[in-house]
């Protein structure tokens, strides 16, 4: 199912899931909160700031009475302090749109985007004495725009029936690029009996890891994915090193440098298991609401892709079976036609032999036992006439062994009429002995 023209792509969900999907969108898109700070003097000392400002730069740096450069030193290398200096000197305000800034350093560093204004503050004489900083963080909006763009691409791939591996691989890379922290995405596909999970996509996980978990069972305590598949509900493991679900896979995860795994089951509209969607992390980590919302959104997208793939595969299999049935029917018809043609040929041959028998019987009135075969073709047969063949109408004729056997096989009710041979059975039993006499080597 895809969205109708002009419809939000994520609105194309079952009616029962609509409320949950809307909640996920609110979590992912977030709500914009204005930040404000009042800076004094050429050193840009923070006189006052609202809670949103301190939440943005980090609560551990929430204090006033110190220059901004001391609170947020990473702003120097990004040109923001120099920009404040220019506004202070010129008295001209500055407005930025969707400006990128990296806040904090090391493992706590995060990328953010802002719409902001540096507005000079003046005293009674009109001299600039400070700067007011007013801004709105647009990070979530920026991420949401990217998410919707990538999501639309995935939906278009599904609609044009792109290969499932291409869709799932693209989805995994999309999520890895969208999340600010490093994340490694894996999609496992359920077997038809839902007892095992097979590799679907995991572009950033090492090959040895993907090979090792390909075919893992679904069941309680079988890692994050096996358990999520068994429970049909998300399983969050924040620390692989200590979680009992990972007892059998801890060494493997260690070799792959994996410390946390959050797995979400991929479920079809009828409730059957399609697979699992997992987000791995290099360090122990608990998910935020936005992480869980992102997992649910893309698990739903994966379900759409997998169901479409299964439907297309079923259609192709049905077409293959139908084509095979058509081929078998055509083969049977060709065989039937061949058999019918052969039967007609045999009937014609039998009619011709019967005619020859009648003609030979008529000629035999003058010569009861001719020397040459009378059952041959129109060209005649010069072989000795050794067997007498008759039919149920009383017509009889002498012929060679070959033509007599041909008549017996093709003319209905034809039989050997030699009184001295005792019929067909005696004749057939007589032939091997005769053949042995012919083949017996001469001596002397």
From TrEMBL:
Lineage start: Bacteria, Bacillati, Actinomycetota, Actinomycetes, Pseudonocardiales
Q: Which source organism does the UniProt entry give?
A: Saccharothrix tamanrassetensis
Pfam families from the xrefs? GAF_2, PAS_4
List, for all copies, the residue spans of the domain called GAF.
150-316
> Which residue spans adopt a coiled-coil conformation according to this UniProt entry?
315-360
Which terms are listed as keywords in the entry? Answer: Coiled coil
Q: What is this protein called?
A: GAF domain-containing protein
Listed InterPro entries: GAF, GAF-like_dom_sf, PAS-like_dom_sf, PAS_4
